[in-house]
Amino acid sequence: MISQLSPADFAAWRDQVSTADSAGPALLPVVLDVREPWEVQAASVKENGFTLVHIPMREIPGRLAQLQSIHDAGRPIACLCHHGMRSLQVAQYLAQGGFTRVVNLQGGINAWSQQADPSVPRY
Q1: CB contact at 8 A, 113 and 105
Q2: pTM of whole model > 0.85?
Q3: Which partner from 3, 26, 78, 110 sits 20 to 30 angstroms from 47, CA to CA?
Q4: Is 45 exposed, middle or buried (0-12, 13-18, 19+ CB in 10 A)?
Q5: CA distance linking residue 82 with residue 11, whole number of Å
Q6: In this structure, is residue 123 part of a structural domain?
Q7: Active-site annotation, residues
Q8: To 5 degrees, how large is the angle CA 28–CA 34–CA 39?
Q9: Mean pLDDT along residues 18-31
């Protein structure tokens, strides 16, 4: 089962998962935006204590190696889409493929705009 993370709780999650260990600096989590390019142009989150990676949902299987390198580095991944359904499917796909630190941003960028950053346009 994929953990659901509300945008209101994202900052606390980000801070919790990016704690440094004794071996080196903190690893920033990744927000994986699986929306289409036109959607990203309409509204996007701003990097703030995380790395933003945009890979449209349809490209995920072909770019699995890129995502595997993120996972192998121990970086948690929070999946994001418009309302949270595509991102949930991607999170489930990744979990079935062995990804262990993946969550879904519940409600997507629409909820992000309402709960975390009202400067993000809604569409």
Answers
A1: no
A2: yes
A3: 3
A4: buried
A5: 19
A6: no
A7: 81
A8: 115
A9: 74
